[in-house]
Amino acid sequence: MNLNRYDDIIHLPHPVSPSRPHMPQIDRAAQFAPFSALSGFAAAIEEAARQTEAKRELSEDAKDSLDEALRMIQARIDARPKAAITYFQPDPGKSGGAYITVTGRVKKIDAYGRAVVMQDGRTIPMEEIVGLESR
Hints:
By secondary structure, this protein is an alpha+beta fold. It has a domain at 60-134: SH3 type barrels, CATH 2.30.30. Helix content is 23%, strand content 27%. Strands 4-3-2-1-5 form a five-stranded antiparallel sheet, with helices on one face. A hairpin with a 4-residue loop joins strand 2 and strand 3. The longest helix is centred in the middle third of the chain and has 16 residues, at 60-75. The radius of gyration is 32 Å and the shape is elongated.
């Protein structure tokens, strides 16, 4: 093994191209970034594994009690009553969705648009509401 084989060039200055600009270190490092042959595969697996719930149908008694609770809130709407509303939010990517409970002050009940508008600006469609507690 010859340890002195680079002695003739080891102390020479680094060559600089007169026609090409110097590449910044960040660009030089990017050319060694890992290659993913299956880009998007991990996201597709994660999406397939995500669980959703089926929407439950309410009985007529449950619908009547929700209507009564909405009328009670409408009667006190000027006082901005506090309510806990559980509703179904459909999933945009797959069938089913999730049940969400929101607690806050009710700003308005929009009978024409069939929605409950909360003080924070959230709009909840009435046909998606499955539970309502007024405080």
